[in-house]
C-alpha cells in the first residue's frame, strides 16, 4: 500500500532511522508500560515501540492508515482506536485498559492541531505518567519558555501549570516525508505529582490568561481592565504596568484565585 500524505490531517511521516531510534530510546518503554501512540502514521515509531513494549494502543483518524496498520500488525500487539484524538477520552481508556495505572503517550502530533490537542490532553494529566511528542519547534519553544521572553505566553502558562517539560531533541525537515516547511522538536512532558500552584477555578484562570495575552504589547492594567483592579494588583504585589509575559505562572494563579467573582472572566 502506498499512502499519499493528506494535508487536511497534517501528515508528515517520520522516516529518519536515527531520529526514530533517538525517540524510542528517550521513551525507553518496557513490557509493563501502558503505551498509547497518537497518530501512528505508517508505523515508523509503532514498530520499534511494540518491539520494546510488546503491546501498543494507537489513536488514528485516517481510515486508510488504519487499514494499513491492520495489514501489518496483529490485533493482540496493536489495538487501534479509529477516532479523532481531539475528541478521544483518554481518561476512559485508562479506566478500561489500566485501572489504577497511568498511560504513557507518544506521537508525532499533526502540526495543524497541536495546540488544541495539547490543551485537550492536559485535562487528563492525573491519568498520565508521561508524554513524548514530536511537534513544530516553534510550539516546543513556547511550551518550555521562561517568563519575560518572546516565546512565553498562554501555552507556556497553561501547560507549565500541569507539567514539567523539557526539550529532548531537535529534528530537521529532511527527517520526514514530505518534508515540512518548519523545523521540529521532541518534548518530554511529566505531570507534576502535586500541582505547584493549586487553582481554585480552572475556567477562571484560563479566561484570565487568555484576556491578559489579547494584546501582548499592552500592560496588564489595559488588558485586564474591568477584570482586575489596581487594589487587587497591589494586594498581590503585582505591578499593573507590567506586560503579561513578565508574570510567572504562580502569579497568574494568584490573580485568578483572588478574583471575587465566581463567574469565569471573559476577555
TrEMBL record:
Keywords: Cytoplasm, Methyltransferase, RNA-binding, rRNA processing, S-adenosyl-L-methionine, Transferase. One of its GO terms (molecular function) is 16S rRNA (adenine(1518)-N(6)/adenine(1519)-N(6))-dimethyltransferase activity. It is an enzyme of class 2 (transferase). Its EC number is 2.1.1.182. S-adenosyl-L-methionine binds at residues 12, 14, 39, 60, 84, 108. SUPFAM superfamilies: S-adenosyl-L-methionine-dependent methyltransferases (SSF53335). InterPro entries: KsgA/Erm, rRNA_Ade_diMease-like_C, rRNA_Ade_Mease_Trfase_CS, rRNA_Ade_methylase_Trfase_N, rRNA_adenine_dimethylase, SAM-dependent_MTases_sf. Specifically dimethylates two adjacent adenosines (A1518 and A1519) in the loop of a conserved hairpin near the 3'-end of 16S rRNA in the 30S particle. May play a critical role in biogenesis of 30S subunits. Belongs to the class I-like SAM-binding methyltransferase superfamily. rRNA adenine N(6)-methyltransferase family. RsmA subfamily. HAMAP family: 16SrRNA_methyltr_A. This is Ribosomal RNA small subunit methyltransferase A. It comes from Chitiniphilus purpureus.
Amino acid at each position: 500500500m502506498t499512502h499519499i500524505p493528506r494535508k487536511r490531517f497534517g501528515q508528515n511521516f517520520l522516516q529518519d532511522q536515527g531520529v526514530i531510534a533517538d525517540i524510542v530510546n528517550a521513551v525507553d518503554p518496557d513490557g509493563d508500560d501502558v503505551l498509547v501512540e497518537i497518530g501512528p502514521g505508517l508505523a515508523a515509531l509503532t514498530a520499534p515501540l511494540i518491539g520494546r513494549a510488546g503491546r501498543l494502543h494507537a489513536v488514528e483518524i485516517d481510515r486508510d492508515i488504519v487499514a494499513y496498520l491492520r495489514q501489518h500488525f496483529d490485533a493482540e500487539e496493536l489495538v487501534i482506536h479509529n477516532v479523532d484524538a481531539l475528541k478521544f477520552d483518554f481518561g476512559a481508556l485508562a479506566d478500561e485498559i489500566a485501572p489504577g495505572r497511568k498511560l504513557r503517550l507518544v506521537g508525532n502530533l499533526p502540526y495543524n492541531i497541536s495546540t488544541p490537542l495539547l490543551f485537550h490532553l492536559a485535562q487528563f494529566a492525573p491519568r498520565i505518567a508521561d508524554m513524548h511528542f514530536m511537534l513544530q519547534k516553534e510550539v516546543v519553544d513556547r511550551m518550555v519558555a521562561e517568563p519575560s521572553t518572546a516565546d512565553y505566553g498562554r501555552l507556556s502558562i497553561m501547560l507549565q501549570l500541569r507539567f514539567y517539560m523539557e526539550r529532548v531533541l531537535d529534528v530537521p525537515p529532511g527527517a520526514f516525508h514530505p518534508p515540512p516547511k518548519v523545523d521540529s522538536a521532541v518534548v518530554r512532558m511529566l505531570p507534576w505529582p502535586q500541582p505547584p500552584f493549586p487553582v481554585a477555578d480552572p475556567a477562571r484562570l484560563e479566561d484570565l490568561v487568555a484576556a491578559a495575552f489579547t494584546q501582548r504589547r499592552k500592560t496588564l492594567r489595559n488588558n485586564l481592565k474591568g477584570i482586575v483592579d489596581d487594589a487587587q494588583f497591589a494586594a498581590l504585589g503585582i505591578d499593573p504596568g507590567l506586560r503579561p509575559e513578565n508574570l510567572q505562572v504562580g502569579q497568574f494563579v494568584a490573580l485568578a484565585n483572588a478574583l471575587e467573582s465566581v463567574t469565569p472572566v471573559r476577555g
